[in-house]
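Posting for a labmate who doesn't have an account.
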Amino acid sequence: MYAVLSSGGKQYRVEAGTTLMLERLDGQAGATVTFDRVLLIGDGDDVTIGTPTVAGASVSATVLGEALGPKLVIFKFKQKVKYRRRTGHRQHMTRVRIDAINPTEASKSAAAAKPAAKAKAEPAEAPAEEAKAATPRAARASAKKAAAAPSAEPVPAEPAVRKPKAPRAVKPKAEE
């Protein structure tokens, strides 16, 4: 079983027992950390993709310690003016070991049943209200104008009138 989780703006594919270097996390060595931003869970041919995250899924890990990432060199240079600046830094990282991937099958089936029950309880006009709330204000205003306008036959568009081209100036030939 594997999972894709998001931490520190990056995505990682993990399995139980793997060791990761992540952006710095709060927690001492030996502490347990739970990642709830699980984007995908795969178990053989069965793959669950989240929208944007898998509901109820989590990945538990143990903090192994802190370390420094690789040295990054920032070199600024401008030609012909003798401008050179060399700086750099090392990012603080946290080493973690993935203990378990926790998919929740019961909550997944309950989440699938909840929209079906919700659709039965609500009147038929509710989706139109949701769509109305989701549309931008300008689109709603144009839709309102279109609904208020009398339904008449469409007016054919007039062809664009072109200006006649100006005559080209001819250079007089030099007499020999």
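Reply:
Got it, the structure tokens are right above this. The first helix runs from residue 105 to 121.
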